[in-house]
């Protein structure tokens, strides 16, 4: 059986320069496959709003949506570190709302830590949740919940003025007590500097080499076709495989080649007795 990692393992992996490989997962089967493959972590991201629920952003996703998907992933991956993603509205109001919702993730969905978006502006939230005894992963750079303010899903830190803010955000996340930091869509030069500067592990999605890499499951499997960010590497083409399988099934049903004798349950008493049964209803 796979041994579940602890926060100390992730801190040691940074020291030992061992990379952390993780993806998002939203459902039970993906969680099973992730654990079987040996993923170091699974993120139940609020990206589930776009990848699974068909919204055009992550903003409509609710606490109930996130908790339900976290529970499915926990059932599929009992021995993997799972991150619950705080949805928009779960921590924007007050420190106390943020703590209450973080507690729900731990108690009701049994995740190992929570993640929330923002740096300097959410410092007091990170501190409050950490003080409640809950591990927090920060998330800076391109923060999808505030993509409106950022002018869209745009890379961050590409000019010096903006890079300064990204670096200040990274420092604020560490100073507030987060155990790790995720950086999204930031130039590798800036990520490398932050990774050297911070003591906590720094992970990237579209931000170049650091202490580990995250990809969105539906992107790396070629399942989500609405748009694919530049930073995605596609490791499979699940959409084509799925559509091909659906087409083959439709064709076989229409032409009568499915089901065959291999796909049915035969009677276990003599046929003559069934003939008598059928006659009763004629
Ligand atoms: O919700 C999510 O999957 C995320 C990633 C985009 C980092 O937060």
Topology:
Elements (H helix, E strand, L loop, with lengths): L6 H9 L4 E5 L3 H10 L3 E4 L3 H4 L11 H14 L4 E5 L9 H15 L3 E5 L5 H9 L4 E6 L5 H4 L9 H16 L4 E5 L3 H10 L4 E4 L6 E4 L1 H4 L17 H18 L15 H10 L2
Parallel strand pairs: 1-2, 1-8, 2-3, 3-4, 4-5, 5-6, 6-7
Helix pairs in contact: 2-4, 4-5, 5-6
The structure holds 3-methyl-2-oxobutanoic acid.
Total strands: the figure is 8
Q: Which consecutive residue ranges, at least 5 long each, have pLDDT under 50?
A: none
**Mass-distribution shape:** elongated
- Main structural class: alpha/beta
Strand order in the sheet with the most strands: 7-6-5-4-3-2-1-8
Question: What would you report as the Rg, rounded to the nearest angstrom?
Answer: 23 Å
| Top-tier CATH class of the largest domain | Alpha Beta
Residue-averaged pLDDT, rounded? Answer: 97
Question: How many domains is the backbone divided into?
Answer: 2
CATH architecture of the largest domain: Alpha-Beta Barrel
Largest sheet: 8 strands, parallel
Determine the N-to-C terminus distance: 58 Å
Order of helices and strands: HEHEHHEHEHEHHEHEEHHH
